């Protein structure tokens, strides 16, 4: 992984710098030793003045204020929707290229929703100032569906996600840790972030429920897959589950393809050859993707690939990715790199 086209950026603002995704964004910048002369860090009032390491320096966190984006070239947002709604347009107006990690603009027809390996070409002629990065569960699923779509076509997708607590933010991460410690020591515990205890438990509902019983997270996955894959009529059925793991989102996926595949081995080779995917699929030897492989990795892992004998042209597979990294921070940096690549080709 390299970000060759980000060299030369003169300034960047990270909005949500003290959150899990914001910190990961800064860590990836540091890993790649990118030299950006001006880095501004923003977070809530509670974090004002906090010192955060960024590109080899300790920088103080500020709060958003009038004029804070003036002269800033790039802004990355990973904050609650109400903050994004107010401040992202202000950053745009100030001339920033904005990459947003919230759900606010994802379904806006004027805003590209991008996974560079999947639909990065949609940025080839992009002249706007705002790009959205998908839901952290959508991204790994779309990464596996894309090569299948290109080779066989897609008819129907059924997915059940198993999502770690980090997808709900730092407070959720801390709640799992505290509940686990307290339960193991026979102590009382608090339930604040989730509706029920999350330690040693699974919660089959993420987000708000609509009149049909579908959750907002389930609807996000369906709608975003259709947009990213340019398949507006693709049948998608999703169930989302919060599980007591700290990092890594998994998904059990059943996909009905548009045409016949010759063998499962053919599918394995197809997926393993797709940029950003790594196949781990020797179940007899207990080789398959887990949270351990995914955490801290740039890649999306896929395994348990097998034919679904109950439906023609259908496959089952298991996909796993680091939801904070590839699901958010890394994907945002790849988006920026892709935008600059095309703009410097002109």
Strand content: 15-25%
CATH C-level name of the largest domain: Alpha Beta
Instruction: Give the helix/strand class.
Output: alpha/beta
Distance between the termini: 23 Å
Helix content: 25-40%
- Radius of gyration, whole Å: 20 Å
Task: Give the overall shape, derived from the CA principal axes.
Answer: globular
List how many beta strands DSSP finds.
Answer: 13
CATH architecture descriptor name of the largest domain: 3-Layer(aba) Sandwich
**What's the domain count?**
2
Write up what this structure looks like.
The structure is a single chain. Helices cover 31% and strands 22% of the residues. It has 346 residues and is of the alpha/beta class. The protein folds into 2 domains: 4-134 and 327-345, NAD(P)-binding Rossmann-like Domain (Rossmann fold, 3-Layer(aba) Sandwich), CATH 3.40.50.720; 138-164 and 202-323, Dihydrodipicolinate Reductase, domain 2 (2-Layer Sandwich). The strands form 3 sheets. It has a 6-stranded mixed beta sheet. Strand 6, helix 3 (116-119) and strand 7 form a beta-alpha-beta unit. It is globular, with a radius of gyration of 20 Å. The mean pLDDT is 95.
In short:
Helix content is 31%, strand content 22%. With 346 residues, it is an alpha/beta fold. α4 packs parallel to α6 (216-228).
Name its key features:
single chain, Dihydrodipicolinate Reductase, domain 2, 2 domains, five-stranded parallel β-sheet, about 20% strand, globular
């Amino acid at each position: 992984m390299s970000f060759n086209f980000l060299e030369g950026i003169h300034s960047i603002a990270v909005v949500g710098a003290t959150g899990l995704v914001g910190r990961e964004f800064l860590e990836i910048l540091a890993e790649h030793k990118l030299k950006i002369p001006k880095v501004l860090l923003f977070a809530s009032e509670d974090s004002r003045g906090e010192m955060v390491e960024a590109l080899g320096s300790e920088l103080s966190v500020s709060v958003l204020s009038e004029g804070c984006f003036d002269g800033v070239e790039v802004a990355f947002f990973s904050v609650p929707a109400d903050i994004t709604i107010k401040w992202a347009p202000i950053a745009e107006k100030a001339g920033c290229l904005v990459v947003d990690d919230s759900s606010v603009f994802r379904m806006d027809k004027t805003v590209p929703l991008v996974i560079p390996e999947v639909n990065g070409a949609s940025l080839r002629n992009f002249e706007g100032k705002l790009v959205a990065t998908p839901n952290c569960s959508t991204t790994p699923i779309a990464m596996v569906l894309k090569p299948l779509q290109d080779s066989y076509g897609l008819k129907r997708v059924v997915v059940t996600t198993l999502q770690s607590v980090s997808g709900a933010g730092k407070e959720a991460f801390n709640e799992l840790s505290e509940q686990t410690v307290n339960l193991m020591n026979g102590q009382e515990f608090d339930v604040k972030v989730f509706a029920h205890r999350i330690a040693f438990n699974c919660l089959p509902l993420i987000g708000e429920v609509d009149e049909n019983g579908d959750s907002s997270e389930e609807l996000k996955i369906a709608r975003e897959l259709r947009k990213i894959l340019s398949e507006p009529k693709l049948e998608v059925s999703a169930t989302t589950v919060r599980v007591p793991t700290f990092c890594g989102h998994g998904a059990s996926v059943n996909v009905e393809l548009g045409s016949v595949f010759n063998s499962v081995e053919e599918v394995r080779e197809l997926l393993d050859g797709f940029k950003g995917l790594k196949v781990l699929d020797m179940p007899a030897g207990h080789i398959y993707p887990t949270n351990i492989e995914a955490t801290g990795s740039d890649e999306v892992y896929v395994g348990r690939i097998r034919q679904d004998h109950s439906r023609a042209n259908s496959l089952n597979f298991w996909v796993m990715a680091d939801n904070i990294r590839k699901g958010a921070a890394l994907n945002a940096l790849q988006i920026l790199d892709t935008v600059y690549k095309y703009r410097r080709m002109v």
